[in-house]
Design brief:
The protein has a single domain, classed as de novo design (two linked rop proteins) (Up-down Bundle), CATH 1.20.1440.130. It has six helices and no strands. The longest helix is centred in the N-terminal third of the chain and has 33 residues. Belongs to the VKOR family. Pfam families: VKOR. It is found in: Membrane. It is a multi-pass membrane protein.
Length: 171
């Protein structure tokens, strides 16, 4: 691959990351408006799988009494800022990698909690989780670089991003 090809691929991944971050922010705005009482309901697709209104107004969606959509808007705004800064600043790139890991982990946890606690999904939150997955995909080199740097400096136990499969004793 030529340096120009690498630059084009990097630019495409950066654009995907920024676009997915904007998508995550856009899906959180209606939820935030609903959680703060500005709008009276969240529309869902006509499927019994979704119950955005109940989930968005639940106690778990208000950690410390704060609507989680507002926390998400602040969080993804920080991710967006780091994504912009990461092209020019090495520290921002490392922070972006760590932030994407946190974002993806939080999104997966949130979807899992919805399924196991409510037996339903918030369609808007699912959109946010999908956008977050795309962000993690687009920022995978920043994530990899961050993990490798942490491993090299001894801040995590692994020395590479490879996993060893071990045999578990039979039950």
């Amino acid at each position: 691959m030529t340096p120009l090809d690498v630059e084009r691929k990097t630019a495409a991944h950066d654009a995907l990351l920024l676009g997915a971050c904007c998508s995550a922010l856009a899906t959180l705005i209606p939820v935030g408006l609903y959680q703060t009482g500005v709008i009276s309901r969240l529309p869902d697709p006509p499927m019994s799988l979704f119950d955005s209104n109940r989930i968005a107004m639940s106690k778990v969606a208000h950690p410390m009494g704060i609507p989680d959509a507002l926390l998400g808007l602040v969080s993804f705004s920080a991710t967006f800022t780091l994504a912009i800064l990461a092209r020019r600043h090495r520290t921002a790139r490392s922070l972006l990698g760590a932030k994407l890991i946190l974002d993806a982990s939080a999104a997966a946890f949130n979807v899992g909690r919805q399924v196991f606690c409510f037996g339903k999904l918030c369609s808007w939150c699912t959109g946010t989780a999908i956008s977050t997955g795309v962000m993690a995909y687009a920022g995978r080199t920043a994530i990899r670089d961050t993990l490798l740097k942490a491993a090299a400096t001894g801040k995590i136990g692994a020395t590479s991003c490879e996993y060893t499969i071990v045999d578990l004793p039979p039950n």
